Amino acid sequence: xxxxxxxxxxxxxxxxxxxxxxxxxxxxxxxxxxxxxxxxxxxxxxxxxxxxxxxxxxxxxxxxxxxxx
Length: 69
Prior knowledge:
The chain is an all-alpha fold. 55% of the residues lie in helices and 0% in strands.
């Protein structure tokens, strides 16, 4: 089962303790979107991320869509 849980800041420590009390494989915690955005922006700024100019990417999308017709 998958669920999304929002925890108020003042209860984060208690919630983390609850998670730690469960068996190790009972809960899978995914990274938050904030962490993912931060990671990707750092990759972009450092030059590690492969990027495509907007119009070039748009052309590729258009070609891909037209080839499916």
